[in-house]
Amino acid sequence: MNRVVFSSWGGNIVDNRRKTAGYTPVENLEFPLEHNGHRVRAFMSWWGLVVVDEKINVADMTHAYLKEVQKLSCGECSVGYLGIRVMLDTLTRILGGKGTENDIALLRWLGNGIKANTKCDFCALALTPVLDSLKYYEGKYTKIKAAQKSLAKPAYLTRITAPCMEACPAHQDAPGYIELINNRRYEEALALIRQTNCLPGTMGRACFAFCEENCTRQDIDKPVSIRALKRVPADYEVTAALEPEAKVKKAGGDKVAVIGAGPAGLAASYNLALKGYRVTIYDEQPSVGGMAWVGIPAFRLPRNVLGREVDIIKKLGIDVRLNTRVGKDITLEQLLKQGFKAVFIATGAHAGRELGIEVEGGGVVDGVEFLRDVNMGQKVAVKKRVIIVGGGNVAVDCARTCLRLGFKEVIILYRRSRAEMPAREEEIEAAEAEGAKIHYLAAPVKALTEGGKVTGVECIRMKLGEPDDSGRRSPIPIEGSEFTVGTDMIIPAIGEKPDLSLIEGKSIDTTKWGTIVVDAPTGQTSLPAVFAGGDCVSGPATLVEAIAAGNKAARGIDRYLKSGRATPPEEQVVEDWLHDVALNHQRDGNIVAKKERQSPEQLPIVKRKLGFDEVEQCLTLEMAAKEAERCLRCYRVMLLAVDGKK
After folding, report:
1. 8-state DSSP, 539
2. Are residues 222 and 343 in the same domain?
3. For 276, which DSSP code?
4. Burial degree of 377 (CB within 10 A; 0-12, 13-18, 19+)
5. Whether residues 369 and 512 fall in one domain
6. Are 162 and 41 in contact (CB under 8 A)?
7. How many CB atoms lie under 10 A from the CB of residue 420?
8. Distance CA 29, CA 1 (A)
9. Cα–Cα distance between 229 and 233 in angstroms, integer?
10. CB atoms within 10 A of CB 565
11. 210-245 residue pLDDT tens
C-alpha cells in the first residue's frame, strides 16, 4: 500500500489532504512511488490522478499533461480534436494570469462533452485525470486565476503507450501505424514500424501477435488484426518498387561484433549501424536469418521476403561473415583483441532437447534439424507415417511440412490438452485442416524398433494436475493406460536449448538452465564489454521477443561505449515503471458498434499440399482500411512529476 496525499486511481477517491496522521492507504495502486533513486511527486494517467507531494501544482501539471494529449488527438472527430485544443488554450490563459470567471466551468463542460461524444477511446480516457483535477483541486485553479500572474513551468517525465504496445515485447506503436494505414500513408506507416522492428514483412507473417491478446477491441467483438495490418505497408513497399531510406548517423564509430545472424542479432546490428557503429556479424550458418530462415517453413515465411529485409539491413554498411563459428573458427578473446569495443552474443537456441525415451536404430530426427534440412533444400526421405512429439510451433510446422512432402499420415502427440498447447491457435487449426491428427494427453514412453528401424511408439495416457512453473497444468501419467501407435519415423519437437560452448571458461555467468545471465534493462553480461540477448538468454521464445532483446542490447551497448556504463536511459526507467499499469484495457468511451474483423485470404487446402506456396495472403488495401477503422486508438498518456536522484 502506498501513502499518498490524494488519489482518484481507478475511480476510488482517497483524500488525505487534511490529515496529520492515520493516512488512508490506496488499494490496488500498482505504480511504484519510488524507483531507481527517483521519488514520484505526482502522477496523471488515463486512470486518474495521484498526488504524493502536497506542494505539487496540480493545475500546471494538468496543463503539461493536456499538451501531450493534444499532440495525439487525431482529428478524425472534431469533438475531441477541437475540444481539447480549446481546453488547452483555456488552461494556458489561466496559467498565464489571464483567466476569466467562467473558465473553470467551461473546462468542465468541455471535458464532459468530449468524454460523452468523442469517436474513439483515446480522448475519453485521456480526460479522466483532467476532470478529476478540476473537481478535487478547483481551489488551485481559482487561486491562480485570482493571482493574475504566470507560474514557473517545472519539468515532467512523459510516456505514451497503449495496451497493445505494452503487450508487444518490441513496444511497437501499433495505433500509430494502423492510423497511417487507414489514411493510406503506407510509407510513413512502414517507417514508424521500422523504428522498433527491422523485419516488418517477416513479423507481419510470423509474429506471435501478443498485441492482439491485449487489444481493447476484444471486449466489443474481436481484436484488431494487428499482425496482418503490419504486413500491408511492407508488401506495399515491394509491389510499389520502393526503396527505404535509412538515415545513418556519421559513420566511423567504434567496432561492434555481433555473434548470430538471427532476429536478435539483426535487430542489434540494425540499430547500432543507424547510430554510426561499424558492425560485423558472425554466423555459423551459410545464410542470414537464424531460426527465421532455417526454422520457419516457406509456406509461412517465403524466403524472398526475409532475404529482402536482410539485404536492407546489410545495406547500412554491416559486414556479414557466414560459415564462421565463434569459439571454433575465431574466439571471443580474438574478437576483443581485433579492436571490437563490444560484443553482442545472439546465438539463439538451436540445439534440440532429447526425447528421453529408449531408441535403438534410426528413424528419429530432431524437429529443428528436420526443418533446417527442408528449408536448406536437403532431400528428406518421405515415410508413410510420422509421429511428432510436442505442442509448440516447431511441432506444428513439422507436421504441416510433412504433409507437403507427401507423408501419408501425420500424428502429433501432446502430453497436455488443447488449452495448454503453446503453438498459435491459427497454426493448430491450419494443421488440422490440412490433415494432421493431434492426440492430446498422451506421451511417448519408448520407441519400438525392428531390424534397426522404428516401427512404433509405446505411449501412456496423461491427466492434468496442478499448474507447474510454466503456469500450465502439469501432465501426470495414468498407471496402466499404455497403448501403442505404429510409425515409420519419430520427430521430437519438445523444445530447444542454447549452445554456449563459445563462452566456456569465460567470465560470463550462466543460469542452471544453460542460458546467459544479463542485466535485464541493458543486456550486459558479467563481462562488461560483452552483451547477450534472444533465446541464448531467455531460452526458446518468439521472433518478436528476440527483436526486442536486440533493440535493448543496442541501446545498452551505445550507452556503454559513450559513457563506460550500460545504464538504461531515463525513458527506459519510466517504461519499466509503467509497464504493468498500462497492460489493462478498460474503456471509458461511447458504445462502439460491432464491426466484422477483416481476415486475410488463405490458399485453398487442396493447393497447399502441392508445394510450399505461402498460405496466408496479404489483406487488400481496401480490407486493410476497413480493419484499420476498427482500431479504438487506445493511447495512454502518462505524466510524472519526479524529484531528481537522491
Report:
1. S
2. no
3. T
4. exposed
5. no
6. no
7. 19
8. 7
9. 8
10. 11
11. 999 999 899 899 999 999 999 999 999 999 999 888
